[in-house]
Amino acid sequence: QVHIYRLNGHPPADPEHERGRKEEKAWARAEQDPIKEFEAKYTENGMFTADELKAARKDVLAEVKACVKFADESPMPPMELAKELEYPDAPDTDYNLKPAPAFADEVNARTIAPEAMENVQAHITALREKANAGEISVGDAINLAIHEEMLRDPTTTIHAEDLQAGSSYDIPKLTQQTYGQIRAADEIIDEGHFIGKALGEGMNGYRPIVELMNTNFGIYGMAELSSAGNTFATTGGQFDMPMTIVGAGGTAPNQALGAEHSQPFHAYVMGIPGLKICSASTPDAAYGITKSMIRDNGPCFLFCPVKMMKESKGKVDLGQCMRLDKAALVHEADEACVKSGNAVTVLTYLHGVKEAQMSVDAIKEEGFDVDIIELRALKPLDMDTIKESLARTNKLCILDESTKSGGVGATISAVIAEELFDLMDAPVKRLCMDDAPVPYAETMEKGVVKRGEDLVQGVFDLCTKKW
Amino acid sequence: YNSMNMARAFENACNQAYMQGKIRGFMHLDNGQESIPGLVDYAIKNGDKKYSYYREHTHAISSGVDIGAVMAELMMKETGTCKGAGGSMHIFDKSTYFQGGWALVAEQLPYAAGAAKSILIDQALGLSDDEKIEKVNVAPPADDDRISVVFVGEGGSQNGRMAEILNAASKDNLPLLILTIDNGRAINTFTPDIAKNSDVYKQGEHYGVPGLLVDGLNAADVAKGGKAVIDYIRSGKGPAMLQVHTYRFNGHSPADPEHE
Prior knowledge:
The complex is a heterodimer.
Chain A: H1 21-31, H2 34-44, H3 50-73, H4 81-84, H5 104-111, H6 114-132, E1 136-137, H7 138-152, E2 156-160, H8 175-179, E3 184-186, H9 191-202, E4 207-212, H10 222-234, E5 244-249, H11 265-269, E6 276-279, H12 283-295, E7 300-305, E8 313-314, E9 328-331, H13 335-339, E10 343-348, H14 351-365, E11 369-374, E12 377-379, H15 383-393, E13 396-403, H16 408-419, E14 429-433, H17 442-448, H18 452-463
Parallel strand pairs in A: 2-3, 2-4, 4-5, 5-7, 6-7, 10-11, 10-13, 13-14
Antiparallel strand pairs in A: 1-8, 6-12, 9-11
Helix pairs in contact in A: 6-7, 7-12, 9-10, 14-18
Chain B: H1 2-19, H2 35-43, E1 49-51, H3 57-62, H4 67-74, E2 92-93, E3 98-99, H5 108-125, E4 128-129, E5 135-136, E6 148-153, H6 160-171, E7 176-182, E8 185-186, E9 189-190, H7 191-194, E10 211-215, H8 219-234, E11 240-245
Parallel strand pairs in B: 1-6, 6-7, 7-11, 10-11
Antiparallel strand pairs in B: 2-3, 4-5, 8-9
Helix pairs in contact in B: 1-2, 2-8, 5-6
């Protein structure tokens, strides 16, 4: 603690903000100047002469004068620089081509006990068998990706609450036991705190993974997440921020988790610059996207559906990183419906994917059909895939797990209108959450959270020109 | 004894209702920690402001919230405290000044400090609540000794907000009781694994806020020690901390029985 006096105002912008400070400032300048103090003390005791100090000061002033001249004569940056500084890795990066650090094996050999290495390899093998059998869950698939990447690159760290206990979905399972507390840390229950610490690691050559038990809780870390997003651009590209945040979130219909466990955090973070945002509702996407995000040099956020972490099972393309800018066509409308103008492009993500898939039969019964596109890439959006489908259907419906104001559906609606207007035969149908906290009681919740039956109605309305 | 039994019986009834699917989502039971609602029943008054976390059923009940209304809320009924909109973690009752029911760990700390300040504002402005809990131009009684009490776990007590409100409460001489429920578990992590110092009641030393540690096993000690701390605050001497060492009999919530 250094006790001292500030000789100017807070910034030069507010010299008058000096509640009683004017006199204090004058006094401080006269009596509390450490430079004057130094000059007085060390000329008095003969260590320096007044002339010596004067010459030294003169040199310093000359340096300062030169630096001001340099700055005055320097050009301003080009307008394009802001866009160039958005991401250190372009959205279409193929992360399979990223080289692993050469020192990986050596560092692993000296920091991972042989027994721990044996255990984790057995764990990885078991998970891979599950994956090949089509039985791996979303949580386990992310855990597999994390282990593969933490072995591949020892600069990868992980933070979570209940980390050693596996947190809620086994995402960090066996990490502390393998890589030690120095790389796999239990954290106090304050997301801002450990997202903040992760940021500090990221500034210093490490690649932190942060697992949020429920992405809702990320609310505590809005400031830190925002700063993580700002880092690359605001530092003029000097500092990468290779932070990966993964968590279970979203709002399933009738989930009854209460208002503070149902907030659409993916909606809240859409506006954070520099952040790549993805969603995954199946193990293969969760696995492939997690691997890429860990290798990406910017901050990335993966949202998975909270109610499907254990129940959604499938196969995984082992060893492969997925693109972070690609949506997935998970159901294609049949040609007859397309030709007769009875097909709709449905954009959805998280729990909406399953809701949409389960609604296909009811939609077809009415004589309509849908292209279901899973928005695995939320930011940036995959406009190519959307365009391809919209060119067939000319009608678009968004089943959106964020609120009417702000967020995913709002953003997409705007972009579609701006860039794909010529393909539209109808306004965008946005089935989004009301601007309300998600009510606990299911009778109330039905009005707020949109689900499969709303989609069936929405498709019907679009195809029968009801808008 | 009655209030401890009420707490235990209510939580057991919740457990049963949850298994029958009548209560859904997240639910956090207080079994083992009953000496705390015992203290609330004994020493906390209706006009005191109460703030709690998500394991708050027994705090609500011992504060006087109607048990039928609480159970109805858990069962998502319109007759619930919040008309079914809130659920287990969001019990609120205006008339008993039970001001939540909050899910984000430690978020309730600054809220309770603001509520404590509102008591001082009442006194400074000469305003008070009428029976409809609307502000009227009637000064609080001369012997107004209302306080604000906030419940937080020892895990939540590691949150930066604790330092902030210890500072704010002592600076403004807020009538605030910080009651730390110390069961040694932060969700499913042993708190000493992540907390350097488990003596939460001493955190106030830097700010001049006194604290007392009591053993939750001994309900009478909790009541006597707790009342002494509460009376200290009521007498206008400023904020204080009470740490109750206790044990949680069930898991964090029924949703994760294995995570032990």
